Amino acid sequence: QVQLVESGGGLVQPGESLRLSCAASGFTFSTAAMSWYRQSPGKERELVAGITSTGGSTNYADSMKDRVTISRDNAKNTVYLQMNDLKPGDTAVYYCNAQKRSWPSPYNYWGQGTQVTVSS
């Protein structure tokens, strides 16, 4: 059974920091590209950050690149999202994604999300 379980969300005040975690199981984590997406009510799901299978390359949404850092620990099958200087506009459900595009065994897995609320 493939599982992506997000944790670390919660209620924080503007300017504070939060670190999200995504624990993966049921597939070969070390070969998957991992990403964080977010979605708030009335908006489309958007990419926050991505990282290659080895952790050698990362990418970020332009709107958040100065405030977030994605990392992974393949030995622990876990990907992280460090978020700093949080703003009310960051309020959303944050989802973990695992993707492998190469054949013959491509896949795209999603976690159930963790709520982040930024409010004073």
Care to describe what's here?
About 0% of the residues lie in helices and about 50% in strands. It contains no helices and 11 strands. The strands form 2 sheets. Strands 2, 4, 5, 6, 9, 10 and 11 form a 7-stranded mixed β-sheet that branches. Strands 1-3-8-7 form a 4-stranded antiparallel β-sheet, with no helix packed on it. β4 and β5 (about 45-50) form a beta hairpin. The chain starts with a strand and ends with a strand.
Largest sheet: 7 strands, mixed
Task: Note the quaternary state here.
Answer: single chain
Mean pLDDT across all residues, rounded? 96
Helix content: under 10%
Overall form: globular
Strand content is over 45%
List unreliable stretches of 5+ residues: none
Strands, total number: 11
From N to C, what is the helix and strand string? EEEEEEEEEEE
Over all CA atoms, what is the radius of gyration? Answer: 14 Å
Measured between the Cα atoms of the first and last residue, the distance is 39 Å
Structural class: mainly beta
Q: Helix tally? A: 0
